[in-house]
């Protein structure tokens, strides 16, 4: 009953109630001080004092920063969260020092003495969440990044006030555990996964097999990388959006469960069915919540959770039915599998999850990220 009540809530309220990876003030302040040292170097970093104070926010959940000092004194950077403090630092560097921090490079020639902030400059965001990325970005840009490049990206995210972002690395290692537990062979799993550069479309059910298999070393390195990414994001008070089960399964699932109700989807992107035409579980099939909860349980056991998950069921694909009742059932099945996974997570009393769902079908609505709608409300657009 509790899961049904939560699923009926309006999407934005679900996100607002989902909590997040706030962390404590001291940890977040330490993360921002380390960012300052990485960005400016230890010497210039000594001219900045950083503190995180939750009470700085006039309204809970609305990040706020305050700037002061400079001139003959240290520059004071205060924030209600680590992300807020980092955004305040960026404001000072950009508007008072004429500096620039970008993906392609940075200009960080600090004037001497450091400019004074007249009085106390305080700024608050009107938005609880500032979201970043879509699932394709993982393959467009991130797939070959090492930790040094990810650390730089997370610093950039904090400086730009981003506090909600996808963190999807390493999920194939989790899926491998789930598929083996379900009875698939290693050969069947190897045949299913795409190669690294195409994982985004494998995860969304557009592709399988193409440029695979993934070597064992890939899984090990991605697990390690994901742990570091999550630790760093959480240290700033960001909320990582973890992956969830969207309904796509390897064809080999039909061998293990001959009675399973699946639909063979159409081809995608001019690939033939050797690499496309994925299998989608019917939302009412009893194996749907089993697979979804097994995945989420393994994921949470490995990485912990911040209670917000993402799933893309119909990316650039025509759903089996355009009836609102079917689309509502499909998204409800995704959410209920999340809820079952949270309940099953070992030794963890987890709140109901919030969902970030992607839908970009060939016909109808076009969008990359939408908060959870009430069941029965029609397609996610």
Structural descriptors:
four-stranded mixed beta sheet; 381 residues; elongated; alpha/beta; 2 domains; 14 helices; six-stranded mixed beta sheet; disordered N terminus; TIM Barrel; disordered C terminus; Chitobiase, domain 2
Number of continuous helical runs: 14
The CATH homologous superfamily name of the largest domain equals Glycosidases
Q: What radius of gyration results from the CA coordinates?
A: 22 Å
How many domains make up the 3D coordinates?
2
The proportion of strand residues reads 15-25%
Spatial separation of the terminal alpha carbons: 27 Å
From the 3D structure, determine the CATH topology of the largest domain: TIM Barrel
Structural class: alpha/beta
Order of helices and strands: HHHHEEEHEEEEHHEHHHHEEHEEHEHEE
Summed over residues and divided by their number, the pLDDT gives a mean of 87
Number of strands: 15
Highest-level CATH class of the largest domain: Alpha Beta
Question: Spans with pLDDT under 50 lasting ≥5 residues?
Answer: 1-23, 361-381
Shape: elongated
Residues in helices, as a percent range: 25-40%
Major β-sheet profile: 6 strands, mixed
- Main-sheet strand order equals 7-8-9-13-14-15
CATH architecture call of the largest domain? Alpha-Beta Barrel
């Amino acid at each position: 009953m509790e899961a049904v009540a939560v699923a009926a809530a309006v999407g934005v309220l679900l996100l607002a109630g989902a909590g997040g990876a706030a962390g404590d003030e001291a940890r977040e302040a330490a993360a921002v001080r380390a960012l300052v040292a990485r960005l400016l170097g230890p010497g210039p970093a000594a001219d900045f004092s950083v503190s995180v104070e939750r009470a700085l926010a006039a309204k809970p959940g609305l990040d706020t920063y305050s700037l002061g000092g400079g001139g003959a004194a240290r520059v004071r950077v205060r924030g209600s969260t680590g992300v807020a403090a980092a955004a305040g630092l960026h404001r000072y560097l950009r508007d008072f020092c004429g500096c620039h921090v970008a993906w392609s490079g940075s200009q960080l020639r600090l004037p001497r003495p450091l400019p004074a902030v007249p009085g106390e400059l305080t700024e608050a965001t009107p938005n609880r969440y500032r979201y970043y990325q879509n699932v394709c970005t993982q393959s467009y840009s991130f797939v070959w990044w090492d930790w040094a490049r990810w650390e730089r990206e997370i610093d950039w995210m904090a400086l730009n006030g981003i506090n909600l972002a996808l963190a999807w690395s390493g999920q194939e290692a989790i899926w491998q555990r789930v598929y083996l537990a379900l009875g698939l062979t290693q050969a069947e799993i190897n045949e299913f996964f795409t190669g690294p550069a195409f994982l985004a479309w494998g995860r969304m059910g557009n592709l399988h097999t193409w440029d695979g298999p993934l070597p064992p070393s890939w899984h090990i390195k991605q697990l390690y990388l994901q742990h570091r990414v999550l630790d760093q994001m959480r240290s700033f008070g960001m909320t990582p959006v973890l992956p969830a089960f969207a309904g796509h399964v390897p064809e080999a699932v039909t061998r293990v469960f001959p009675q399973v109700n699946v639909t063979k989807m159409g081809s995608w992107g001019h690939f033939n069915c050797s690499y496309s035409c994925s299998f989608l579980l019917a939302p009412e099939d009893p194996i749907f919540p089993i697979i979804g909860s097994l995945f989420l349980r393994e994921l949470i056991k490995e990485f912990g959770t911040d209670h917000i998950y993402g799933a893309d069921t119909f990316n650039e694909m025509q759903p089996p039915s355009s009836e609102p009742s079917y689309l509502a059932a499909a998204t409800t099945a995704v959410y209920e599998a999340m809820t079952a996974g949270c309940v099953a997570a070992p030794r963890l009393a987890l709140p109901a999850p919030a969902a970030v769902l992607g839908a970009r079908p060939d016909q109808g609505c076009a969008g990359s990220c939408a908060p959870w709608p009430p069941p029965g409300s029609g397609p996610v657009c």
